[in-house]
Amino acid sequence: MSDDIGNQLPQPDPRGWLTFDHLPRDLADAEGSTQYADYEASKRIRGPRKRPATPAERTLLIHLGHEPPELLDTTVEYLTGTVRRRTWPVLELLESKKTQNPENQGARQ
Is pLDDT of 73 > 70? Predict the structure, then answer.
């Protein structure tokens, strides 16, 4: 169905986790609006900046199997004038804890 979220592009991707071969129109529109707002903010603020995660970002992160906390910041950084990388340090920390703790992976000690 064309309204489904497409496949995640191969990782690691310099733009971050939220790279897909296609998105449903509502998510694509929301992501486009966020990208424009991030670009405009990058003209005023140099270097990485934090902002609250958008509903679209939260939806896509959940789609990828993450469990975003209620309060989640997105770190936005422009690698070049037009290449935006978004990261979620809290989720990265949670993921690393899961992989370091075999009990969370179903392994037996």
Answer: yes
Look-up of token digits 């140099």: 46
Which residues are within 8 A (CB) of 50 and not within 5 positions of it... i.e. 6 or more apart? 73, 74, 75, 76
Cα distance between residue 63 and residue 69, in whole Å? 14
Question: Would 37 be classed as within a structural domain?
Answer: yes
20 lies in some domain: no
Beta bridge partners of 20: 8
* pLDDT tens digits, one per residue of 5-52: 999 999 999 999 999 999 999 999 999 999 999 999 999 999 999 999
Residues 6+ apart with CB under 8 A from 8: 17, 19, 20, 64
Q: Does a structural domain hold residue 6? A: no
